[in-house]
């Protein structure tokens, strides 16, 4: 029986008043650290016009991280495909795959990940519903595959690179599509945990073997905060709690120092909203993290997790990934079980 694979999803969080370059430098340090720990992949998100996140130019960040690492896979978690022309995505990731062979992943998402003014600024039709996502994915696949007879437009670099594609989602649409296309699926349980079980069931029930996979490969983004003691971990949790509180209030989502208690910072409604977002957070010492991750992995039938670890101090983040790498060796991959 195999062990649960562990990877990282990074939103490149910034501290108040911090230059983006400092946050990006932490990302590089983190990627180098988890590479040494044996993590499978390091994925970078795409967000636009959000104060506190430095992950708008995803493909640029991927190239930067790949250049300063050597073995870990680096990719997008994910490129929001409706924001981009499929040809441009294929060219960018084909170029990355040409520079860093067998190390680049292309995670594709259906949502724009931004508000209407930002969508207009990206020259995106704000009336688009995302219903054309299957056609857009197929177009990217075509550009990255072998040329077809009579094909006029080619992705160069890109053509023939067959960059591995994973579909990302926070609802059932992409889960069902990933199953039908025989692709890996990654669910955004780090901010939409309430839909996780339904999405994974849809993915498995719709799965059709393909040239990419002969059986489903299920991944999930999960908030993970591991520390040497339960008390330390619970205190570290207040940093992502403050981030989601800022999101609820439509404020900058910068990394804030942990606090002893959140009681004076939120009201009842805000607390419930934040706790709902973090319902699948994995928080605690090594034993608690291993036990909770095993339960979640069994429940959702996960093959791999993408750990989202937001801490104010970099040392706490690196330590959390060390603990996770150690305990993951004892987490078995099994078939999904009833909740």
Automatic annotation (TrEMBL):
SUPFAM superfamilies: Bacterial luciferase-like. It comes from the Bacteria. GO terms for molecular function: oxidoreductase activity, acting on paired donors, with incorporation or reduction of molecular oxygen. InterPro entries: Bact_Lucif_Oxidored, CmoO-like, Luciferase-like_dom, Luciferase-like_sf. To bacterial alkanal monooxygenase alpha and beta chains. NCBIfam families: oxido_grp_1. This is Luciferase-like monooxygenase. It comes from Terriglobus roseus (strain DSM 18391 / NRRL B-41598 / KBS 63).
């Amino acid at each position: 029986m195999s062990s649960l694979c562990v990877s990282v999803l990074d939103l490149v969080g910034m501290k108040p008043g911090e230059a983006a370059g400092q946050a990006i430098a932490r990302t590089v340090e983190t990627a180098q650290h988890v590479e040494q720990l044996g993590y499978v992949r390091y994925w970078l998100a795409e967000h636009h016009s959000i104060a506190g996140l430095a992950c708008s130019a995803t493909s640029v960040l991927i190239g930067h991280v790949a250049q300063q690492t050597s073995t870990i896979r680096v990719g997008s978690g994910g490129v929001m495909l409706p924001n981009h022309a499929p040809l441009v995505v294929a060219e960018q990731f084909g170029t990355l795959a040409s520079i860093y062979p067998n190390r680049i992943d292309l995670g594709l998402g259906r949502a724009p990940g931004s508000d209407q003014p930002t969508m207009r600024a990206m020259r995106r039709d704000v009336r688009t519903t995302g219903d054309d996502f299957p056609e857009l994915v197929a177009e990217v696949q075509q550009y990255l595959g072998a040329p077809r007879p009579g094909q006029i437009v080619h992705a160069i670099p890109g053509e023939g690179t067959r960059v591995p594609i994973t579909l990302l989602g926070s609802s059932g649409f992409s889960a069902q599509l990933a199953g039908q296309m025989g692709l890996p699926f990654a669910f955004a349980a780090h901010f939409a945990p309430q839909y996780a079980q339904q999405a994974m069931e849809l993915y498995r029930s719709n799965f059709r073997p393909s040239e990419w996979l002969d059986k489903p490969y299920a991944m999930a983004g999960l908030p993970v905060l591991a520390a040497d003691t339960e008390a330390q971990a619970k205190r570290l949790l207040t940093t992502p709690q403050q981030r989601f509180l800022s999101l609820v209030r439509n404020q900058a989502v910068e990394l804030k120092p942990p606090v002893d208690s959140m009681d004076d910072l939120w009201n009842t409604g805000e607390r419930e909203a934040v706790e709902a977002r973090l319902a699948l957070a994995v928080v605690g010492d090594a034993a608690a993290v291993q036990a909770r991750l095993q339960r979640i992995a069994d429940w959702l039938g996960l093959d791999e997790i993408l750990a989202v670890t937001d801490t104010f101090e970099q040392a706490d983040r690196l330590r959390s990934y060390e603990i996770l790498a150690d305990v993951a060796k004892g987490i078995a991959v099994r078939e999904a079980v009833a909740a």
